[in-house]
Amino acid sequence: MNPKGKNGTRYLLAGLGATTGLIVWAPRAAFSIDGGFEGHARDLSVLFVDLPLILLGGALVPLFAWALATRRVHRPWAAALAALASLALGVWGLTEWWTPRQHPDPGYGPGI
Question: Alpha helices of the chain — where are they, by DSSP H?
């Protein structure tokens, strides 16, 4: 009983959320993947734990917001706006909360 185009909106919002999560995740996790000097600070948990959670959250947050808004408002443009706003708030929360290691340990400074 869904009007034509609703299913496409779901996939578009999920793809947009997952892509946005990946774009925000990649530069922040680059140091943990590379490991810095001789790989001493390599932390691959950002690949195996953080990346799947960020992609899943990025895909599900706009979908849940869109589903709740369509049930309450019954206007597709308002539901899309609510989904995009929830995605923006989710990205803001991610950048404020999630901070992987960015610099080497304090003992690795310039030489004597």
Answer: 6-34, 45, 51-72, 76-97
Return per-residue pLDDT of the chain as tens, 112 residues: 455 555 688 889 999 999 999 999 888 888 788 776 676 778 888 889 989 999 999 999 999 999 999 999 888 889 989 999 999 999 998 888 877 766 655 555 555 5
pTM: 0.75
CA within 13 Å, CB half, 41: 17
